[in-house]
Amino acid sequence: MKTDIRLIDYLSNRRSIPAFQMAAPGPERAEIEQMLRLASRVPDHGKLAPWRFIVYRGPERERISTELARIAIADRPDLSQEMVTVENTRLTRAPVVVAVVSTAAPHVKIPEWEQLMSAGAVCLNLLMAANAHGYASNWLTEWFAFDARAYPILGVKPGEKVAGFIHIGTAMVPPTERPRPDIKEIVSWVGEEA
After folding, report:
1. C-beta atoms surrounding 116 within 10 Å
2. Which phi and psi angles does 2 have, rounded to 5°?
3. pLDDT tens track of the chain, all 194 residues?
4. Does residue 8 form part of some domain?
5. What is the pLDDT of residue 194?
6. In the beta sheet, which residues pair with residue 94?
7. Is 171 exposed, middle or buried (0-12, 13-18, 19+ CB in 10 A)?
8. What is the pLDDT at residue 13?
9. Are 17 and 178 in contact (CB under 8 A)?
């Protein structure tokens, strides 16, 4: 069996960059479309494609962030000025944000759980596709991913759920390593002696 050393090296060192540590330039439309094609190449039982993408770019990110902030501030009028600033910049931290939207639904043959996991696989593939194009990326699910009041603002339709917001841009700082789980503590072997 031939080993792809470059892929192993990438997976051994893959790290996310926080969205607030990204800046322009971000990917152009053709690059984004290529990333989305690559992201779509995931396990998908029944070939349902139970997910879709919403791409946020340009000044619309500011308008949407402001509308989301209104919800947050209405819910928590005692927010500090620092948190108000955070709320007003939710989609402007990186030059491009892509929502991966799960369209999972009951199916006679394909469990909804499998459809949801396929959307999660799309999120991870999109992170890797962005990295392969030379960009930093980060997968976030923040409060508005779970708040139906935000869905019309974001372009999410009734019955859909947000699997994640993938922030894509250029890293302003080098990635840092974080602790990883000890493989001995998270693996069980069946049919083989430890």
Report:
1. 16
2. -85, 135
3. 888 888 888 888 888 999 999 999 999 999 999 999 999 999 889 998 999 999 999 999 999 999 999 999 999 999 999 999 999 999 999 999 999 999 988 899 999 999 999 999 999 999 999 999 999 999 999 999 999 999 999 999 999 999 999 999 999 998 888 899 999 999 988 987 65
4. no
5. 54
6. none
7. middle
8. 87
9. no
Find, among 35, 34, 16, 31, the residue nearest to 136 by Cα.
16
Q: Which two tokens stand for residue 87?
A: 């709320």
Q: Is 79 helix (H, G, I), strand (E, B) or coil?
A: coil
What tokens appear for 137 in the block? 């990326």
Whose tokens are 């439309």? That residue is 29
| Residue the block writes with tokens 């990917």 | 27
CATH for 97: 3.40.109.10
Please, are residues 101 and 166 in contact by the beta-carbon 8 Å criterion?
Answer: no
Residue 80 domain-assigned? no
Please report whether residue 43 resides in a domain: yes
The whole-model pTM stands at 0.93
Q: Is residue 183 part of a domain?
A: no
At residue 29, φ and ψ (nearest 5 deg) are: -55, -45
Q: How many CB atoms lie within 10 A of CB 66?
A: 16
- Please tell me the total count of domains within the chain: 1
Q: Which two tokens stand for residue 85?
A: 């600033």
CA 96, distance to chain mean position in Å, is: 11
Query: Closest Cα to residue 50, out of 111, 129, 97?
Result: 111
Domain range for residue 123? 17-57+92-173
